[in-house]
Structure formats: structure tokens, C-alpha cells
Amino acid sequence: MAGAIKYAERIGKKVNIVVLLPDSAQKYLSKIFGDNWMRQNGFLEPDPIGTVADLLAAKGAGAVVTASAGDKVRDVITKMKAHGISRLPVLRDGKLIGVVAEIDVLRHMAESGHGPEDTVEQLVEADFATVTPNTRIALISDLFGQGGIIVVLEDDSIAGVITKIDLIDYLAKRIPEQRG
Questions:
Q1: Strand 87-92's sheet: what is its strand order?
Q2: Residue 177: its pLDDT value, please?
Q3: For 50, how many CA atoms within 13 A lie in the half-sphere containing its CB?
Q4: Model confidence pLDDT, tens digit, residues 55-105
């Protein structure tokens, strides 16, 4: 810019000067050149399989069943039975601290000295993966190797839980659409 001003002062007549200020876009790489932005602005084809948000929408809205760290094991067993689930996210002060699985409850109950009145906090494990609603479906199947469920976080709140059968069901419904 300084060079353009010096040039304008030096030529001594009234002219229009065009100055190009190149921007490397380095500070915008995550937004402007991210796949989501590129797709939304027509630079990439839509992801044929979709995103986690698409899977959650197809799965249907429903409250995520969770436990609190201070809940009794008895209450967690009741929730698991009532909802037909084998893993449950556990929260402390509204933040995800881990997951409790039915196998952990079984082991706990089978050990002498432990019972249903104990708190679930001692059973919490980090055997899960987290994603955001914008995560592409193509990226999540390998995450099940890290645990039995995938917890969907949006702004540190649980937006959903994805199980293997949720992903299988979603893909089974999507694949015929892609071939048709």
C-alpha cells in the first residue's frame, strides 16, 4: 500500500490506481477451506453419506439417557433396563466424565463388598469416542474401536449417542438411495 501512495505522489497527475492486496487466507484455513464451508458454497460435492447430524436426524429426536456421577448403581441398572441400553454416559456438573457399561456393573455387583447402593462414579470408564454433529459419517466407523458408543458433543453438551447398530441402520437406509 505504501508503494502505491509513493507512486501516486510521484506521477503528479490524477489517475485511478488499483492496488491488489493478496491475502494468503492462512488465518481462515479452518473455515474457508474446511470441507463443510467448501460444500456449502458449492466448491465440493455434498458428502454422499452425510454427517453425524444427518444420522441423528434419521435416528429421531429423543432425550439422551444419562447418569450422574452420584447416582446409585441400582438407579443406573433401572435406566439401562427401562431403555434397553448397555452403555450410559455419566455426567458430573453437566459435563461428560465417561461412560458406564453393563459389563462394568456386572463385575461390580459380582465382587464381594460391592452392592447396588454404591455410586456409579467408581464404575466410569473412558471407553468411548466423541464427535461433533459436523463430523462426516465416513470418518466414524473406525471410532468404534475406541469404545462401544460414540458420544456426540455440541458446545460441551451431549447432543446424542451413536451405537454400532445406529450406524449400521443409517448406512443400510442410505446405500439404496445412492445406487438408485
A1: 67-68, 87-92, 95-101
A2: 55
A3: 16
A4: 999 988 678 999 999 999 999 999 999 999 999 999 999 899 999 999 999
Q: Which positions ≥6 away from 4 have C-beta within 8 Å?
A: 17, 19
Residue 176 in grid coordinates: 439404496
Cα dihedral 68, 69, 70, 71, rounded to 10, equals 50
What's the CATH number where 174 sits? 3.10.580.10
77, with CB counted inside 10 A (0-12, 13-18, 19+), is middle
Evaluate the CA torsion angle 132, 136, 139, 140 in order and state its sign. Answer: positive
The owner of cell 469416542 is: 129
The reply to whether 35 and 58 lie within a common domain is: no
| Residue ranges making up the domain that contains 10 | 2-40
Between the CA of residue 69 and those of 15, 107, 115, 116, 135, what are the distances in Å?
Answer: 72, 18, 16, 14, 28
Question: Are 96 and 158 contained in the same domain?
Answer: yes
The pairing of beta strand 95-101 with beta strand 87-92 = antiparallel
Q: What is the mean pLDDT of the chain?
A: 84
Number of other CB atoms surrounding residue 67 within 10 Å = 23
- For the chain, give the longest Cα–Cα distance: 96
- Cα–Cα nearest to 69, from 124, 26, 30, 14: 124
Main-chain phi, psi angles of 68, to 5 degrees:
-100, 150
